[in-house]
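for the recovery benchmark. tokens below, seq after
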């Protein structure tokens, strides 16, 4: 397998049992309270928002586990907004959707009054 030179791919497949993650086309777990209204495209990236049924259908189509991002609710701590973005491996076993924890990022935003927008102030990476 040779990736397209314009695609960012992390070699995160274990013994070929998972689909390698393409960070220019990410799958995000759909959550009406969090993901509705988020962009499906930005710069040269695209995002596909899938609910649980759609995640199961994608797994059945691919026949291998694949990565999905799950965005957790925002925590407001004074002037800082904190968002956790978690990567799970999606699979379907024993007639149930399975989400296996891979890694996560805690992203902090602060409001810049002069720019009138939130900017990323820190990113803390975690993983198993």
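predicted aa per position
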């Amino acid at each position: 397998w040779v990736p397209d030179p314009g695609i960012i791919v992390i070699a995160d497949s274990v013994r070929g049992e998972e689909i390698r993650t393409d960070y220019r086309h990410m799958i995000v777990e759909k959550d009406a309270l969090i993901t509705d209204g988020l962009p499906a495209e930005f710069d040269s990236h695209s995002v596909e928002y899938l609910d649980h049924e759609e995640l199961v259908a994608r797994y059945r189509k691919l026949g291998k586990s694949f990565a999905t991002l799950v965005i957790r609710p925002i925590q407001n701590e004074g002037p800082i907004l904190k968002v956790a973005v978690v990567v799970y491996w999606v699979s379907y076993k024993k007639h149930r959707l399975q989400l296996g924890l891979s890694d996560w990022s805690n992203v902090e935003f602060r409001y810049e009054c002069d720019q009138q927008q939130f900017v990323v102030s820190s990113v803390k990476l975690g993983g198993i």
